[in-house]
């Protein structure tokens, strides 16, 4: 991506990606050919990931270190509001298996994004982006203890998401006996901490608190709440809603502080490192299920996977406490 940014600039790159995603979504609506659907889906999925990268570059260029926390907090809060609203809109739109309506709505939602960027960022001044080979980028990350540690924090957070997103709904539906409607309600409430806490925590990271301390508390909260899932067998929606809500309080603390810390340490010119930082999610979603599959092959019951995840989260304390404060 740095090569493209140097050649075309971040503004032209993101506008091109928005167009590619838009037409990919229209392609999903208009064809029933399996191979074309496969190609359109991958193209759309990759485009969205790269657009997120472009937005990171915009944000990092337009924010100073003293305001990184509040900017990242507000940005993540707005993103997480979308995560809460999107399933509700989907449930309203989706009738009689008309999935094409979802793709059409998604394509239409790209139009205001297109015009907002065109109106406000068309004169964006690019930094000089370093096109560095992957091996050199990895070496650069490993040599900087703080960057290396925050990468591990991000990986563990994404590892947590990969297990919880996949196995929690399966466990609640198959073993505890909740309906999908009840699970939907619980998950909507579960995500509220990301909206309610990340913006104020971001402001506090800029003014009073150190990121590493909040990250560490977040890992402890995540670990304890996740571990308790193993021992809860009652079909009590309020109890489950509470424990899932608490686990996401911890996750929101780790998320906002790791984002704030990373972008205080990195400037927009280091697109290679920003790009590598964003690969922690796909790596976690690749390795997380593989690790879980290995545990299931050893006949581990699904409820015990949560105590294993809690132990993994406690390891996050090592890397969070190793970080040097930015203030």
| Unreliable segments of 5+ consecutive residues | none
Number of helices: 13
Structural class based on helices, strands and sheet pairing: mainly alpha
Radius of gyration: 21 Å
What kind of oligomer do you see? single chain
Helix % is over 70%
The overall strand count is 0
SSE sequence, one letter per element: HHHHHHHHHHHHH
Mean pLDDT: 86
Amount of beta strand: under 5%
Largest sheet: none
N-C termini distance: 32 Å
Q: What is the overall shape?
A: globular
What do you see in this structure?
The protein has about 325 residues and is an all-alpha fold. It has 13 helices and no strands. Helix 7 crosses helix 10. The chain is globular. The model has no long low-confidence stretch (mean pLDDT about 85).
Entry summary:
By secondary structure, the chain is mainly α. It has helices at 2-30, 34-62, 68-93, 100-120, 134-143, 145-176, 180-190, 192-207, 211-229, 237-265, 271-277, 280-297, 305-322. Helices cover 81% and strands 0% of the residues.
